[in-house]
Amino acid sequence: MLIKTKSNILSSEITDRAVFESRREFIKAATIFSAGIMLPSSGHAETGKYADVPIGPYSAKLPVTGREDVTSYTNYYEFSSNKKDSTVLARALKTKPWSVEVAGEVEKPGVYNLEDILKDNPVQERIYRFRCVEAWSMVVPWIGFPLGEMLKRFKPTSKAKFVEFTTIYNPEVMIGQRSGGLDWPYVEGLRIDEAMHPLTMMVTGMYGDELPNQNGAPLRLIVPWKYGFKSIKAIVKIRFTENMPETAWHKNAPNEYGFYANVNPEVSHPRWSQSRERVLGSSLFTPKRDTEKFNGYGAEVAALYSDMDLKQYF
Ligand code: MTE
C-alpha cells in the first residue's frame, strides 16, 4: 500500500525467485515445475504445527508461492512502510496470550480468549490467490476457519449490517503507530453478507505452521476476492454495526481505496492500472499475469454485487 504520493512499484520489490518452498513442495517443484505440470494442492509443511490439518473447500489447485517470498515481503504499516523492515520489526509483538473483544449489534458480546475461539473453530488449509492493490499477487496455503462460522456463535442481531475489525494498538512495539500516515489503529470492515460468505477466512497459520508475526499473527482476516488491504492483521476487536464502518485506507485516501475493494481489472487505481499483476517470486523477465475479476472468485461471489455499479462502489 502506498501512502498518497509515492510511486507504486519499488525496485526492491523485484525478486529473482521462482520457487515453491516447504520441503515437500520444493523437491516436487524441482522436477515437476520444469515440466510445466501443476503442483498438488497441499501447501503443508510436513513438520509444522498444522501439518495434519485437512484441506478445506474452495482450496485452489495452484502452485503456491515460495514461503520465503511471502514471509519476507510484508505490508505491515504498524511497523514500517518498508516491506523488508516490517518483517523484522514485527518479531517484537507478543501474540500470546491474545483475546478478541466482540461488541456492537450482537447478543453475545464479550472478551473471548483466542484459545477458546480455536476450540470452537477447527482449522483447515485453503490455498487461495491473494492480490494486493499495488498490483502484485501470490498464492498462499492459509490455515484457518470460515469467519462466518465464528461470527454466528456471537448471535448478530437483525441490525448487524456490517462487521468492523480493529488491529491491536501498541505504539511501544508497533513503532509505525507513533507517527501519522494512517489514523491508528488500523480498521477494516465488511458487509455482513461478505463476512458470512464461506470463502472469507479467519487465519491463524500458513504453510502448515503458525502465522508468522509479520503476516498478521495471531489472527488475521483473508478475503480472497478483495484487495489485500481488506485482510487486516492482528485483530483484537470485532464490532457488528448498523452503518458502514470508516476504514483506515479509505479514510486516508477515499478516492484511491474504496470500502468494497473488490479485485477488478476494469477499474484502475487513480495512479496505476489494475489490469495486470506481477506474480511474487517470479523473475524480472516473467510476463505479468492478467488480473481476474474478483481475483478469480467470481463464480462464488459476483452475485453479492449483482445490483451494484462496481465502478462507483470500487
Ligand atoms: N493489516 C494491518 N493491521 N496493517 C497493515 O499494514 N496491510 C494490508 C493487509 N493487512 C496491513 C494489514 C495490506 S496493504 C496487504 S497487501 C496485506 O495485509 C499484506 O499481507 P501480507 O503482508 O501477509 O502479504
Automatic annotation (TrEMBL):
GO terms for biological process: protein repair. One of its GO terms (molecular function) is oxidoreductase activity, acting on a sulfur group of donors, quinone or similar compound as acceptor. It catalyses: L-methionyl-[protein] + a quinone + H2O = L-methionyl-(R)-S-oxide-[protein] + a quinol; L-methionyl-[protein] + a quinone + H2O = L-methionyl-(S)-S-oxide-[protein] + a quinol. It is an enzyme of class 1 (oxidoreductase). HAMAP family: MsrP (MF_01206). The lineage of its organism: Bacteria, Pseudomonadati, Pseudomonadota, Gammaproteobacteria, Methylococcales. Part of the MsrPQ system that repairs oxidized periplasmic proteins containing methionine sulfoxide residues (Met-O), using respiratory chain electrons. Thus protects these proteins from oxidative-stress damage caused by reactive species of oxygen and chlorine generated by the host defense mechanisms. MsrPQ is essential for the maintenance of envelope integrity under bleach stress, rescuing a wide series of structurally unrelated periplasmic proteins from methionine oxidation. Heterodimer of a catalytic subunit (MsrP) and a heme-binding subunit (MsrQ). This is Protein-methionine-sulfoxide reductase catalytic subunit MsrP. Its EC number is 1.8.5.-. Belongs to the MsrP family. Pfam families: Oxidored_molyb. Residues 94-249 form the Oxidoreductase molybdopterin-binding domain. Mo-molybdopterin binds at Y77, E78, C132, T167, N215, R220, S231, I232, K233. Binds 1 Mo-molybdopterin (Mo-MPT) cofactor per subunit. Its cofactor is Mo-molybdopterin. NCBIfam families: PRK05363.1. InterPro entries: MsrP, OxRdtase_Mopterin-bd_dom, OxRdtase_Mopterin-bd_sf. Signal peptide: none annotated. Keywords: Metal-binding, Molybdenum, Oxidoreductase, Signal.
